[in-house]
Backbone:
């Protein structure tokens, strides 16, 4: 009998829909005159996002820092992970990516346990953020399990190094800031496998004896096929898959979701 467990519990969520800005407990600071604002155009989801002016009609430099309240992260089990995610959207002009956003400016996403010492989670400079850029919504998802059983702050820092002025303003927007616990889906104690652990990043599998493992997309395309006689990790993107595990006289077929 296959045993499966799957839970996801939200610890923190902010969608910037409330007209209070910054939202309760957040801070909006920095050396730049223009800070983060609640944006109702170029929105990522719903009616509003948080945005920062990245091309501006008034010439200025400095940083603008949007910071969450203190967030308490619990201890987690060994099959669980703490996920931090948010969505962003680069500025657009008339529905296309605003190429004026190419500059020497930088955006950093950072985490801290004390509000003083910060570790970079994301650093976007003029190359990493703008290469093949468009103005579609994109998700960033990171595993911050290392911060379990502590309190953290997360902040978005826009560092404006560009002193030129533009004909009109343009914004970088973020939305749907989420922190939650994702429990792995765990299959255990079958004839042929000791366990199979499914996380956001792929499948970890330990067979009880040599087996043949095949993975298919939901439309039937085989994307993995291998004989497995020890613990393996198969990295997978988000999506639905079918896994087939075969030994001499046993066949197990399971539909799995990487979320
Ligand atoms: Ca929103
Ligand atoms: Ca500037």
Residues:
């Amino acid at each position: 009998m296959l045993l499966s467990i799957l839970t996801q519990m939200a610890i923190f969520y902010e969608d910037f829909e409330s007209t209070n800005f910054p939202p309760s407990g957040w801070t909006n600071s920095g050396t730049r005159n223009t800070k983060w604002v609640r944006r109702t155009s170029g929105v990522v989801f719903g009616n509003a996002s948080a945005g920062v002016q990245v091309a501006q009609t008034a010439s200025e430099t400095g940083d603008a820092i949007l910071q969450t309240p203190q967030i308490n992260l619990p201890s987690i089990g060994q099959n669980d992970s703490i996920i931090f995610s948010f969505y962003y959207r680069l500025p657009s002009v008339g529905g296309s990516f605003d190429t004026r956003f190419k500059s020497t400016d930088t955006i950093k996403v950072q985490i801290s346990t004390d509000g003083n010492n910060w570790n970079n989670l994301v650093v976007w400079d003029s190359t990493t953020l703008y290469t093949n850029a468009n103005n579609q919504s994109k998700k960033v998802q990171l595993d911050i399990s290392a911060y379990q059983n502590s309190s953290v702050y997360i902040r978005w820092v826009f560092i404006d190094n560009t002193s030129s002025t533009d004909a009109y303003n343009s914004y970088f927007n973020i939305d749907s800031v989420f922190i939650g616990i994702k429990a792995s889906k765990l299959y255990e104690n079958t004839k042929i496998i000791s366990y199979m652990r499914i996380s956001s990043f792929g499948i970890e599998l330990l067979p009880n004896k040599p087996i043949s493992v095949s993975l298919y997309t939901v439309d039937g395309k085989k994307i993995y096929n291998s004989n497995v006689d020890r613990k393996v990790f198969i990295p997978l993107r988000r999506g639905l898959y079918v896994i087939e595990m075969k030994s001499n006289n046993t066949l197990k077929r399971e539909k799995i979701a990487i979320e």
Q: What stands out?
A: The radius of gyration is 22 Å. The pocket of calcium ion (ligand 2) is lined by residues 56, 60-61, 160, 162-163 (CB under 6 Å). The domain at 8-182 is CATH 2.60.120.200 (Jelly Rolls).
